Write the structure tokens for this entry.
Amino acid sequence: MRKHPEIEVVSRDRGGDYASAAALGAPQAVQCADRFHVLKNLREGLEGLLARHLAAKRKKKTQETLDEHAPGWRATRSLRRSPRLERLQQARREERLALYQHVMVLRKQGMSQAAIAERVGIGHSTVSTWLAAGTFPERKPREQACRLDPYLPYIFERWESGCHNIACLFRELVERGYKGSYASVYGPLVHLLPQGRKYGPTADVVSPAPLRARQATFLFLRRPEGLSAEEQETLLQLCQTHPEVDRTYDLVQQFAQMLRTRTGERLDAWLAEVSESQIPEFQSFAEAD
């Protein structure tokens, strides 16, 4: 390179060794990334952006699934009481009802709340609460705690990310500290998770796997006319995920077109659009390349 002082531009990747060698061999030249590595750098930034939005979408869907299914499951479990427990709860209710009726009789006789509490043998605050209620205060049945509940967000997140094998989910839960049996996971999840899939240890996934950020990246970079009808539909759904994703697709297509046609005169206008968009991944790419 030293023997060619006419060199004005050195095209390279962002490796430090190449930068140092070019600076030593042709210090008069402007260094820039070649088209392959520029597109590669754009793809990496784009993948980070899409991963961020797809993760947010999965998290939102996971929470919606939790909100939809978990309360109903807990309500179902709260009704499952043994006959012995039901008899015990009924006996306790009758005992409280007798105390309540005794309090009401004494109050009608003109006794003060403090005197009633001392006579009946209950707290003054309980007497006050019962008198203010005006009717016998039934106790709401307490929800039965389930050791699987703390793991539900993780289960739904893994399910939405494509893991539809309950045996595999069970192994992961054990690794995360779950102490229950496989049956304690399998039974509830069969009713709780979306239907229409097989659940055994060798289960096949019936529904298509969720789109990954790398797959979405290639959809964004390809020429629109080269996409199949199914890919176009997937791309449309991606762009509808968030306005930032839709804007990103336009910016990516503009930049890819500039690279293909070598029309760099539009670069300044493109950089202005990137700055206006305030998309962090694109601004980092523009500053680096």
Remarks:
- The first strand starts at residue 9 and ends at 12.
- Confidence is low (pLDDT under 50) at residues 196-207.
- Residues 161 and 210 are 6 Å apart (CA to CA).
- The chain has four domains: 1-32, 33-56+210-288, 59-79+146-192, 83-133.
